[in-house]
């Protein structure tokens, strides 16, 4: 029988339950997918805690990779196709599920299922951050928080391919080593160095044109203070909590700054754009230009421990659930 992680109330990791489920047959526009691997992302904790609302009871997880077992009417995929996906509806933490075919992305044979589960969300996030948010040019220098994380490792590698230098922040020397190994040119250990001061030193007092901040509450001020005149703060995550309201006059005083809070869903909503970004990601992966290290693997039934590790900062780089 198929199983899934579900939760009936918001709260800590302990609210998650490993339960048997009935999957059924796909309807029009749907497929039944058998997962081979499932992604573990910090955003999953936002749904579990209620920061992102979900109708309860609910499944969990938005990223998976596997094989289509059955298709409903009006679907372009076929049974046996390898696919990956990221996005709603919730429910990726499962051995099997019914999935709208419109959200699926064909997975090339050269990309392993666990690699896909570790990179579809992170890779597409990296793709839109580097290729859609700001017109970066070779020679630019940007600031990236959490440079040793799953997005951080892909981001620094991809940025290097574009000729963009990355100043990355990390919490420890261990993570600094990881960031450097992935192409981070300058690493700031924020637990013992002031980020904005180091950024000004590295950039000869100018600051950076773009800061990519997935941490939020504890880093947004140092992000603002690191920007060059007319720079852009990209708040794409809130690992430490939501960003407090930013007074517009502060943006003027700091150099006529800009702030955006993008969401991946709005950059892959258009099928053609999603295909373009996924194609670029998959090309880099199959050619070996992007390396993916999966440092944590869990059984789906161990999702409680996986979330505890994630929220405690014990995870380095990508994590997946093996099915």
CATH architectural label of the largest domain: Alpha-Beta Complex
**CATH-assigned homologous superfamily of the largest domain:** Medium-chain alcohol dehydrogenases, catalytic domain
What's the oligomerization state?
single chain
Total helical segments: 9
Show unreliable segments: none
- Helix coverage percent: 25-40%
Q: What is the CA–CA distance across the termini? A: 13 Å
Question: Which strand-content bin applies to the residues?
Answer: 25-35%
Name of the CATH class of the largest domain: Alpha Beta
- Shape, please? globular
Look up the CATH topology of the largest domain. Answer: Quinone Oxidoreductase, Chain A, domain 1
Overall residue-averaged pLDDT value: 95
SS content category: alpha/beta
User: What string, H for helix and E for strand, traces the elements in order?
Assistant: EEEHEEEEEHEHEHEHEHEHEHEHE
InterPro entries: ADH-like_C, ADH-like_N, ER, GroES-like_sf, NAD(P)-bd_dom_sf, QOR-like, Quin_OxRdtase/zeta-crystal_CS
GO molecular function: mRNA 3'-UTR AU-rich region binding; NADPH binding; quinone reductase (NADPH) activity; zinc ion binding
Pfam families: ADH_N (PF08240), ADH_zinc_N (PF00107)
Protein name: NADPH2:quinone reductase
